[in-house]
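Quick start: what a row looks like.
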Amino acid sequence: MTRPPFGFGPADRPDEPGGGDDPFGLSAMFGGAGGPFGGDMGSVFAQMQKLMSWTGGPVNWDLANEVATGATRPDDVPVTAEQAREVAEACRLADLWLDAATTLPASGSEPQAWTRTGWVASTTPAWRSLVDPVAGRVVAAMGTALEQGLSGALPGGVPEGLPPEVAGLLGGLGGPGGLGPLRGVMDQVGGFVFGAQVGQALGALAQEVLSATEIGLPLSTAGKPALLPANLAAFSAGLEVPADQVRLYVALRELAHQRLFASVPWLQAHLFDAVDAYARGIEVDPGAIERAVGSIDPSDPESMQRAMGEGLFEIEPTPAQQAALARLETALALVEGWVDAVVDAACSATLPSAAALRETVRRRRASGGPAEQTFATLVGLQLRPRRLREAAALWAAVAENGGPTARDALWAHPDLLPSAEDLDDPAAFVARTAPGNATETDWDAGLRDLDKDLDGTLDDDSSDGPGEQPPA
């Protein structure tokens, strides 16, 4: 089940950083000596005024960046020369092993060692592409619903006794301007609320993610691998596996992801379009508008967040959203399954802890770790490759039957990829697509019929019809 997009935040989880008395996660940004302003209230208010004047879209990305970097900066340390060398060596060895396991070529890009704040800066453009369509739909739906709800709630005009500023805002209702000045205020408050939540989520994820592509989406420039040494060290400390083997295994997964995203140019759009399709299906529950109207104070961002978390948006996805969600989940499973199968083929015989690390990563991805919770917070979707094991088994079966070439060739076009139904029966998919055994597809049949039609047309044109004379 999905949660309402942007409908919950740290205020609902007081045991987490930024919860309880700091529902927007701003303490790391503004408060105390660790904040960027060192507790200087003059600077704080000036920055708040700047952030509240954001006009760059439905998410206040200036605020998101401040909150995310404020959360990661206190315990973030620069990458040492030794850490950079270890990352480079692990990636070099990983590329050599992958050359024997996949036909997709290495990018040749120099691997990078990122700090946590470096991860935030490098992946923010991709997050913006993912989050803005959803946030824009939420803001538009909220505005339309408020306009309808307020118009219905105030059929006789603005009630007496309201504070002057509130009465002034509501006074614009009923005219051609709709919400009047309230619309602009609501957009700015919405951008502030969303920006704070996005920033807090990215800041939390930056402290745990191991590489640029760990969550299965291309969040950085395709073909440019990156690992986070600080997070790798923390991850390794909880395993009974040598740190160098953990680093090599994560490098293998990162470079396999990067080869796939760099070699399949349509894949990023395929994944992001599914998120956008989900966003287009967001609807507002009209019955909740009347309850929400009385609780929203344009001068209080928290009141808007509370309203948005109280059922304004459908929790159950619409049929269109279900289709988009199924498409996204299948694509994520195929990406993760391919990486899992390729990495296993590359290292199972040479890396002593390969089997244990494979199972650890599978559980980390399938159990709904920090990546899933972050994405659910940002766009209301569960980013979980639910069928990773089935997808990995299918890719392995294809490679066993036709070799890595046959397996990797299926990424040539989205229509060639296995479907969700194929994950249920890998043997049938292999039999259907194996060279010499493949049944004719609708595409093949269409091309064959088109060839016949063209041949017939050419034959007809080659002879003169009744009453026609050959050209002079």
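That is the whole record. Residues 78-154+175-379 form one domain. Residues 1-38, 172-178, 438-447, 461-472 have pLDDT under 50 and may be disordered.
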